């Protein structure tokens, strides 16, 4: 016997999450981050807050100040908020809490293509994924989802809206009907909601088991690793037992609280990114043969008229890094491009013209 015999077998089939190794000067449009660093005023706030942190003490265990700051942002009560080390962690907390249900091994339903962490984290924790293909227009196939809900009785459902990597928002009426039909927890992952300006948070508390997830990563604070789940008080109270006591560190907590206190500059940057995506969509639509899918997020999904992998490499050769999603199936020849600064967008459009020509 070796320790490997004790390892969850499904892990052997998983890959470690990696991103491209960045080199200086690269235009980084691959990770759906904000292209805008903090401005001087925010930096001053940061420096001031850093100096006040009691680094010899554990952080505030309940995360109360952060819960309050996030609750104000999402217009809910603090005890409806579960802060996470990125929304990645809130996904993992949910999966841990619902790994086994009344029918044995928990199942997790999500549409495909979507954010890969739902599947990878589910498999790593021993839950069974239930994948329902999106329609050709990237909308939810309500009929197939209802059938799958009935057949599989999943403990959890994840619907990212706007969806990554397709960029579109799902029809909220369809999502609401699915949420009402779901037997367990129904999560609408709103990591990109700041760019669509639309949220389904008002259904929290109205539909049993309904919750939303939000992230601060896409709006300029990716390095802090901060996300949140907004759910009913009794769900949050149960999930709090799974959350590690100090899951959000004191630095992230203090800096996020300070920035959220005066969100005007954050909102300015969100507006700039949304405008940048609109500009980029129009410019890319002018490239012959390139299909640009509509987006409500801070990135665009495009389909190239020639082999996607080759176009991706040619972009990289020109110093522009985007996400290569091309593989047989619905994402064949698809690339995902994050909206950048005006200069970065210009370079991307120029490089794409050359790469496709
Ligand atoms: C749909 C979706 N949810 C969640 C996340 C993870 O966000 P965070 O950085 O808060 O962990 C991402 C990141 O790309 C995402 O696309």
Description:
This protein is of the alpha/beta class and 357 residues long. The protein folds into 2 domains: 3-30 and 264-355, Aspartate Aminotransferase, domain 1 (Alpha-Beta Complex); 48-261, 3-Layer(aba) Sandwich (Aspartate Aminotransferase, domain 2), CATH 3.40.640. The chain is 38% helix and 16% strand. The protein has 12 helices and 15 strands. It has helices at 40-52, 64-74, 87-97, 117-124, 142-152, 172-181, 193-196, 233-239, 250-261, 264-285, 308-317, 342-356; strands at 27-28, 81-84, 100-101, 104-105, 107-112, 128-133, 156-160, 185-189, 210-215, 227-230, 291-292, 299-303, 320-321, 323-324, 334-338. A 7-stranded mixed β-sheet has the order 2-10-9-8-7-5-6, with helices on both faces. It has a 4-stranded antiparallel β-sheet with strand order 11-12-15-14. Helix 4 (117-124) links the parallel strand 5 (107-112) and strand 6. The longest helix has 22 residues, at 264-285. It starts with 26 loop residues before the first strand and ends with a helix. The mean pLDDT is 95. It binds pyridoxal-5'-phosphate. The site of pyridoxal-5'-phosphate has 12 residues, from helix 3.
Superfamily (CATH H level) name of the largest domain: Type I PLP-dependent aspartate aminotransferase-like (Major domain)
For the CA atoms, what is the radius of gyration?
A: 21 Å
Number of strands: 15
Please report the number of helical segments.
12
Morphology call: globular
Low-confidence stretches: none
Number of domains: 2
Task: List strands and helices in order, with pairings.
Blueprint: E1 27-28, H1 40-52, H2 64-74, E2 81-84, H3 87-97, E3 100-101, E4 104-105, E5 107-112, H4 117-124, E6 128-133, H5 142-152, E7 156-160, H6 172-181, E8 185-189, H7 193-196, E9 210-215, E10 227-230, H8 233-239, H9 250-261, H10 264-285, E11 291-292, E12 299-303, H11 308-317, E13 320-321, E14 323-324, E15 334-338, H12 342-356
Parallel strand pairs: 1-13, 5-6, 5-7, 7-8, 8-9
Antiparallel strand pairs: 2-10, 3-4, 9-10, 11-12, 12-15, 14-15
The structure holds pyridoxal-5'-phosphate.
